């Protein structure tokens, strides 16, 4: 299957018959995680992990290159 790349400011995805991810949903999830904890007296680091199902990254045609600007 040939991938169709979609890349707009509000939607980042590589479509293989799956679903797209809206970057505002990612931003909202990160903001919710940060706001649910008490205020820290140091700069926090946030790590984000995204599971990719049924994507063979060994195949060069199916590699994903996308950027999401976080707040």
UniProtKB/TrEMBL annotation:
<protein>
    <submittedName>
        <fullName>Uncharacterized protein</fullName>
    </submittedName>
</protein>
<dbReference type="InterPro" id="IPR023674">
    <property type="entry name" value="Ribosomal_uL1-like"/>
</dbReference>
């Amino acid at each position: 299957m040939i991938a169709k790349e979609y890349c707009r400011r509000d939607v980042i995805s590589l479509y293989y018959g799956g679903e797209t991810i809206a970057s505002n949903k990612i931003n909202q999830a990160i903001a919710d995680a940060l706001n649910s904890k008490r205020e820290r007296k140091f700069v926090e680091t946030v790590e984000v992990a995204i599971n990719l199902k049924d994507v063979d990254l060994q195949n060069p045609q199916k590699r994903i290159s996308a950027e999401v600007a976080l707040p």
